[in-house]
Amino acid sequence: MSDLLIRNLRPMANDACDMLIENGRIARIAPGIDAPGVAIEDGAGAIAIPGLAETHTHLDKTMWDMPWYDGRKGGTLQDLVDNERHSRIPLGIDVHRQAMRHAIRLIRTGTTHIRSHVDVDTDHRLSLLEGKMRARDALAGAVDMQIVAFPQSGLMVRPGTAELLDEALSAGADVVGGLDPSSFDRDPKASLDTTFALAVKHGKPIDIHLHEPGELGAFTMEMIMDRTETEGLQGRVGISHAFCLGMPDQARVAGLIDRLARLDMRIFTTGAPSATCPSLLALRAAGVKVGIGCDGIRDTWGPWGQPDMLDRARIVGMKNKLRRDEELVALLDTATTGGAAAIGIADHTLEVGAPADLTLVAGETLAHAVVETAPRPLVVKAGRVVARSGEFCVEGVSMP
After folding, report:
1. Nearest to 358 by CA among 367, 373, 348
2. Which CATH number is associated with domain 4-50+350-392?
3. Chain mean pLDDT for the chain
């Protein structure tokens, strides 16, 4: 943490002023602040927003800056999972190196909080988690990183995985992950029994990938909601993707959303172009905490994506058919304050007393800032400048 004075910025696109940061927190926001001896940065009239929150990604999977991979396959989810698991070692995907490459690019584009899943399976055991934790340690102070122990290859269908998840949570993983308890694990009761038991044992939150569409997804979601209520884990359970909330039966969806809100469950969406997705505005209107994420970036699954949360916000916005300025402002909130709240960060704002986690962005208004593609002029984490003009600038840490 450090002291810093940023002159001539526009917090949330309001009038230009100065921001004084002391001990890593916002101490004062006003015109013409005088702070002798404090380092000064010129905001040059840029908009200041809370740091971007990447709430669903897979830092262990990216092939960024590796040779182009031409072996991507189609097929079922099982086919994609198997191809990745079998290809990791032959391709030389070093998790620490690749996680650093991905995370530093997120920092350069304004991200100050990351929730990343990491595969835990009986082939690689905890080796991928170990690489991810090394990246988390190396970037401490530049970004906050939550790690989800994720049974990508299945939980009940791969005996021994539950024990590995238990070890991963003891070793330093922050969140219990899950994957399609009905369609992939083939035993939703046993899968959820195990997932929730691990969460209760370790006192950790839950984040379950739910790709299951339509009524099957709704059925599984109701089972997750039932278990959340029974275990008293309100506010501790999230569902990623939640494609079933995009099904045509809007009355059915409305009932699910209402219960999600009552249980304070969180939804994490990536705006997947190839699937039905939940309505961002409907979830927010109901009071559901929502985060967005880039998911996988240029990995064995697909060639697409950029490590930039404003780029992902634009994808989510287009998927949700958002056009009006007030809708784009809601989208930006989901990528910043709202998304941070969804992963348990409660004070991620530009208010006096809040942690000084912020980024400067180009644009005339907040809506304009969402669609603008310029580099981020300045990224600040706990009062420390971590990126300037799109370049990472943390001493002692370099791009691998």
Report:
1. 348
2. 2.30.40.10
3. 96
Question: Could you give phi then psi for residue 106, rounded to 5 degrees?
Answer: -65, -40
CATH classification of 52-342 is 3.40.50.150, yes or no?
A: no
pLDDT digits (tens, 9 = 90+) for 56-105: 999 999 999 999 999 998 888 899 998 899 999 999 999 999 999 999 99
Whether 1 shows a pLDDT value over 60: the answer reads no
Say if residue 84 is exposed, middle or buried (CB neighbours under 10 Å; 0-12, 13-18, 19+). Answer: buried
DSSP type of residue 69? P
pLDDT band at 260 (very low <50, low <70, confident <90, very high): very high
Residues in the chain: 400
210-245 in b/e form (b: 16+ CB < 10 A) is bbbbeeebbebbebbbebbeebebeebbbbbbbbbb
Instruction: Specify the domain boundaries for CATH 3.20.20.140 within the chain.
Output: 52-342
Residue 55 · residue 335 · CB < 8 Å: no
- Full-prediction pTM beyond 0.85? yes
